[in-house]
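Q: Hi! First time doing this. I have a protein sequence and I read that you can turn it into a structure. Is that right? Here it is:
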Amino acid sequence: MKKRYTVRTHPILMIEGRLFMLLVLIAIVAIIILFFTFKEPVYIVSTVIYIPIFIFVLYNFWHNCFGKLVITKELIKYKCLFTPTVVFNIEDVKYIDIREFRKGNVTVPKNGACQKYLLISSEPLPNVRIDKIKRNKKIIKFPLGFEIGYKLSVALSECLPEPRNRMFAAKRYIYERNNAKRKKYGKKR
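A: Yes, that's right. Below is the predicted 3D structure, encoded as structure tokens:
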């Protein structure tokens, strides 16, 4: 039996995030229709202000809401709606890294929580800030949220070859150890 893992960023982004993206698209269309039908100064100003904001939201949250990582023993595939699919054979994966917003001029909150990204590549990863790295046919940039999920750590620890799976095997061990402690002491999550 061939195991296949499908990993998404967060369940809330799958439901509420997609609805929000749909509402943003409807708002863009509504503002454009109002602009061309009435041509009043109020609609001109709202078009100039709101359209760039909506485009910024779509550009920055599209991959978080519609992206998914499919992992099998043979390949790693990143799919997202209306974007090209990126596929790597497991043997071609040479670099895998987790990066976060901590370097450069990006402000980090006081509690240290910041967005993390999983980078998978067949070529050396660029040594630049994470927001400067773009998804293409050579790099998969998958948003993780604030923590590596259990499902992702299980998938990568089982499917990646030995030298590159150690980080995810350790994370999987930590999750399983914490779950065993919760069961032993009766703490609910």
